[in-house]
Amino acid sequence: MERLLLREEDGFQLDPKAVPDEADMVVVGNPTNPTSVLHPADDIALLARPGRLLVVDEAFMDAVPGEREALAGRTDVPGLVVLRSLTKTWGLAGLRIGYVLAEPRTIAALERAQPLWPVSTPALVAAEACMGPAALAEAEAASLRIAADRAHLLAGLAEFEEVRAVEAAEGPFVLVRVRRAAQVRERLRRLGFAARRGDTFPGLDDEWLRLAVRDRVTTNRSSRHSTRP
């Protein structure tokens, strides 16, 4: 297995040419966690090759208005496997529910490897509820709120010279680089705010934090303390 690390100087953008041609399976997150960068669907589709599985994790795609750049539903990309989650927007992480979209033979192979009773009845009921017309409309409205709240968060972070945010963020979180990140994170923790350590992600060091997008009141409260030791 080989991990391709996207670079800050490139805006954490994916370059399809950087993926080795001999790879028989490629896994991409879109939007990517933790950078929140949304890669163009056409760029990801360029990674398709005969005999290759192209796995795209779209767990956070429903937080993107209109789900633009989504590959879910595409049938013209050979070897495409799309993973979707119902645990992000709906806060159902405890149910461990999601679904996969792929060619019939790929689904059949996954089914053969699937353990017995992989999904509980409550999870199935919740999944059905989250896929109805009313729920989809609610999710789209939530994605628009997230976009507005994310813009507010980025604008607030821009006021601090010592903070550098990944401004191309399109997901429900923002990746930031800040001096004394560990001290900032600890201070936020004491004040009741949780920030994800960046050094738990490959390629990032202890100067990075991942901040969740929250409502403006919460963001304003946390931003006042985000760079103080």
TrEMBL record:
Start and end residues of each Aminotransferase class I/classII large domain: 7-213
PANTHER family from the UniProt entry: HISTIDINOL-PHOSPHATE AMINOTRANSFERASE-RELATED, THREONINE-PHOSPHATE DECARBOXYLASE
PROSITE patterns (alphabetical): AA_TRANSFER_CLASS_1
UniProt similarity note: Belongs to the class-I pyridoxal-phosphate-dependent aminotransferase family.
Cofactor(s) annotated in UniProt: pyridoxal 5'-phosphate
Enzyme Commission (EC) number: 2.6.1.-
Source species: Streptomyces pristinaespiralis (strain ATCC 25486 / DSM 40338 / CBS 914.69 / JCM 4507 / KCC S-0507 / NBRC 13074 / NRRL 2958 / 5647)
Root EC class: transferase
GO molecular function: pyridoxal phosphate binding; transaminase activity
Pfam families in alphabetical order: Aminotran_1_2 (PF00155)
Keywords from the named record: Aminotransferase, Pyridoxal phosphate, Transferase
Record-given protein name: Aminotransferase
Coiled-coil regions listed: none
Annotated signal peptide: none
Lineage of origin: Bacteria, Bacillati, Actinomycetota, Actinomycetes, Kitasatosporales
